[in-house]
Amino acid sequence: MSFTSPTFIAFVLAAVLLTSALPTPGGRSGVLLGANLVFIGSYVDSVIQVLPLAGFLVLCYAIIEGVRRRPSSTSLAVGLAIVIGCFVVLKKFSFLGPSLTLPFPYLIIGLSYVLFRVLHLMIDARQGELARPVSPLHFFNYTCNFLSFIAGPIQRYQDYAAHANQPLALNEDKVFRAFARVIAGFLKVGVASAIFKYLFDNMSARLLETALTPSLPMFIGLYLAAAVFYTVYLYANFAGYMDIVIGVAELMGQQLPENFNQPFLARSFLDFWSRWHMTLSDWFKTYLFNPLLTALSRRVTSPKVGPYLGVVAFFVTFLVMGVWHGTTPVFVVYGLLMGAGASVNKLWQVAMTKRFGKKGYKSLTEKTAVIYVSRGLTFAYFALALTCLWLELPQALWLAGRLGIWGGVLGYGVLALAAGLAFLAWDTLIALLAPLRAGAVRAAGGVVARNMVLSLQILLILMITSFFHKAPEFVYRAF
Amino acid sequence: MKLILIQIARLLGGLIAIYGVLLAVSLALVPRTGVAQRLDASRASTSLFLTEPKYVFMTRNQLNTNADKVILLGASNMLVGFKQTQVQTLVPGAEVHNLSVGGSNITQLEQITELVREVQTPEARRHNVYVIGLWYGLFADDKARWYTADRHPGDTDIDIERYRYGFYRRTDAGPVPNLPPQDMDIGVLLIHPYLVLDSVARDLTRSLRGFMAAKPAAITDAQRNAVVLSDAEKLKYLEFWREYMGSVTTLGDAPFHTLQHMVDGILADGGRVVLVDMPIPHWHAQGAVLSIDYRQRAGAVFAALRGRPGVTVLAMNEADTDDDFSDEVHPKPRVTEGWAKRLAASLNNAPELPTRTLAVGTRRESPPSSLPASPP
Description:
The structure holds 2 protein chains of 2 kinds.
Chain A: H1 6-21, H2 25-41, H3 51-69, H4 73-90, H5 111-126, H6 136-143, H7 157-164, H8 172-207, H9 216-251, H10 269-273, H11 278-299, H12 306-324, H13 330-365, H14 368-385, H15 387-390, H16 393-443, H17 447-465
Helix pairs in contact in A: 1-2, 2-6, 3-4, 3-5, 4-5, 8-9, 8-17, 9-14, 9-16, 11-12, 12-13, 13-14, 14-16
Chain B: H1 2-29, H2 52-59, E1 69-73, H3 76-81, H4 84-90, E2 95-98, H5 106-119, H6 122-125, E3 128-134, H7 142-146, H8 157-164, E4 168-169, E5 176-177, H9 184-190, H10 192-204, H11 206-212, H12 221-225, H13 231-244, H14 254-268, E6 272-277, H15 282-287, H16 289-306, E7 311-315, H17 336-349
Parallel strand pairs in B: 1-2, 1-3, 3-6, 6-7
Antiparallel strand pairs in B: 4-5
Helix pairs in contact in B: 2-8, 5-14
């Protein structure tokens, strides 16, 4: 069920209305159960296609309950090995070869995010944070919540349970805000991401047209344009999807965590990842980075080496996070780029702190020129690294060969400079328009005016989507 | 539930109010320009419909008349090769319409005949003479032609127009109209703001789109008449068509069955069919494996159809002089007058219309054709 289809909108509307008709915790759980089953069912043609997921869920439930009853490092380690092993097989990682795959087509979508939730429950069970057993109904609704099934956000079970056990409480303002959030999401997905996808598709097609042989500067220009278009498309698509599910969740009495916080304001690569796909970053921070850093710190006690342990931990964490995005070799390259970005960023921070001291470094990073250069460098690195998500390895190698080392460096520099200047221009414009914006917000404060603004947004979505042959798919479902 | 329903009602109310204002403003600023009485898809780009598929889809209601109609159908070489105005001059007793759509294959041509059929009364259908321009490129398999990343799998350009504004809905059994096709004019009026916005957006982005698609600059008729292709360009065109056709070495059976089905449908409605065996430049016909395959298969198809009442075959494939073409398929402007004369002669000299022998579902005696005699 595509998030931009009329079927999905009708389905969501039915789920929301049913939830408000059955507002008790039991009623809401029942509606959510039904909605989850219908949603997952929309991706399969036969029951057999959903059996691997069902089996995986049953296995995970049993292991979590086992670890909860007998919490020990051994039970956790065995549980982790079994669950991750099953996940790798079900996800059909390319390095496994054909011998370890199930001999029939089955549902893979959502598996990665089910895994995150399951691992979180297992580790919490080991740490004694699950005082009571998780009921099968709550387990299913938590791991397969249709709103976050495909690509998150990754909610903590404790947060899910806290809201699941309360009756639905809506008021006029809350309903309006939830609708506004959903419509803002469709605006991002249906308008912004559709436009940038169109630009990206055409620009990348021109870039990869081997019959055309543009000059190197033109080739670099085409590549940078394609990379920027893809980055904005990905952001609008993913952040829009988050707005939609968070808004719908509000109407169903759930409170999903935020997943984006203006990522293009980031002044460093590490800052970027605290603003982009935040729940995924938090998950990796909690369950990989922190334990890894702790383990390294126990083994290496030298104060001179201490700061560099973070570099190693960041490299490993971002490598794993990058590789997680896909099952083919190009995602290993993506992981290496992510790891390199995080480690270089950390090394820079360590070196600068040594050079200027904590205060001196902090005051340096607050200078306007440094802010925009940093933002430009961060955006450019991320946009170019994302190339791995839209090219296969042979194409990426062809691109790298055509660019050469100096072409790549030049491209990065040009993009960083252009992005920094664009951010500066944008911020200046926003500052100039701030009084106007404040006036507009005041004027649109009444019931009629604010609903007119929302209606106008809906109309814009309907009109712009009619330009395109089909509404954009949710891109992150592929990861 | 009440809160949510109230919120939905407010949004719907706001939407209707704003759209009403927008409709009034768009009609005031950009009045509906009536499409010419004779439809000509080559004028699509200068109309509010902008593209040939949209033009054909939205204007077809004009074909629901009892006047004799010659409907030209094919891909871009039919649009360029048989100019509506030239053919109309030579066939003054019938309305000449060109509903050809660039990039069509046989499946899409059959869809266009279905679209026309939807809006016509049985009596109007009996006055149709379809002129279908055939060549090997039209026999591209649907899998190769319509399964691209930018569309729902299998949607033709006509399907896209069916669904774009919600005039049709997608079902397992194919497209189903939401608005009765006979009321399409009302639908077109209602979507006027969409058409205006689309037009403005296209005008504003013309340069950008041209750059991204690496489109060559438009050339004049005089420049087109003077084109001489290099060997490298010819090789590039051959490679393009090889890929376009799905890199196969023989044509599939399905497009030929679709052609047969389309002809059967037109004849069953009492219409007439002229199949034009379209020429392509000699170098192209000799260099494309599928052209040779098509030539072998088309001979048998034409032989079988030629014997049927109401079907005429106009063989123009021998008009393949390389210098008469400005690229790999499109004739130069200087030759289209001659093409129009050949078609007009075929139309005017063809046997009596079988339409006159058919009532709806029952045969009856045939009155004389109202198509004019051949012009001097």
